[in-house]
Amino acid sequence: MRSTLVLAIIFLGAAWALAHPYVGVLLWTWVSIMNPHKLTYGAAVDFPVAAVIGGATLVGLFLTKDKKNYFLSAPAIALMLFMLWICVTYLFSFNPKGSTDMLDKVLKIDFMILVALVLLNSKQHIIALVWVLVISLGYFGVKGGIFTLATGGNYRVWGPGGFIGGNNEVALALIIVIPLMYFLRELAAKVWQRQAWLAAMSLTAIAAIGSQSRGALLGIVAMMVLLWLRGRQKIFFGTLMIVGGMLLVSFMPESWHARIDTIGEYQQDTSAMGRINAWWFAWNLAKANFFGGGFDIYNPGPFALYAPNPLDIHAAHSIYFQVLGEHGFVGLALFLTMWGLTWRWAGWLRKNATGNPETEWVAVLGSMCQVSLIGYAVGGAFLSLAYFDLPYNILVLVVLARRWVEAHQREKKNDPLEMPQKNKMLAAETIEVAADFRTSPPLHHKRPL
Question: What angle do CA 354, 357, 361 make, to 5 degrees?
């Protein structure tokens, strides 16, 4: 039944995308983030849903009469340069054959991000994308939170597969999406809706903590600190966060405390030491190879050359060292530039959209995108999720929102009814003078003698 339902949604959505390709973008995002076909047991499990949706969206892109915007933004240019660079590093990779599948996957994801920037234009599109992201991960967040409470936190929350199959990976995804839930809560008009969003946010946070991910916990702390710094009632919210955190921590079992305590005792934790070994491996590899080693470097050969402990083979477990080892220092610089620009553009939204009732929603979105980026920056320092779709969709939201604000400001500027008060007064004075001139009697000059 679930398999039939998912396939029906895919095919109907793909047909709709032929005429309105923005629908294909939203459908692609849903499939790539949530992987709903992997939650079934029938034909949908191995069906090439991404190929069907992507193909229909691209056909619609060339056939549609819907508005398309090829506006080039600084974050998008940085993304394209990063895409170009990983194609270059692929040519110099240690194992091009072993890197091909990952290169293909990453380029498809990033290409569809660029397609989203072309096809999504309106306020409705922006909010719809937020809804898709929240539904895709909120399902696992609410479900995982209920599971954690029901089991007393004795079992870890695991992901559905793909990029977020592990407990650490799904925890990072969940903390990134919580600020987007807050944004939708701010848009809600009814009290029960706002309460429902508050419950969903709380359960999602509990699910992230119930995953027993140390990186996600640090990410949550960083996000809460940022929210506290920006809040107005610092004493109230600071007390609320401390009390709520203490109650939640006291609820978790001894196994959770034992795992979290290893943050300060990493020298005795084999997992933590394995990550440090992988970080040194990535650093040494990048110093010795300008183009990095490509995607397929986590195997005995490269570790024997560059790792302090060649027998302790681990993935990078860090978005920064992952990009550094795979694409060198240039790749890391482009990666950091892309996210730095995205952060800066989100800050522009907070500054330039505040105070106007028509654009206030964009200011909230920009602020929440920055909170999500902080979670990704801190939590991602301990996870290999450099190519995960969700943060790149945050980039899309920021670029689209700024484009919308700038278009809105241009419309207001060109609207005579929205003329600044000073200009209105000047216009009124000009009209009054002209009227006086028309009603004045004609002047009679005597002919000079």
Answer: 65
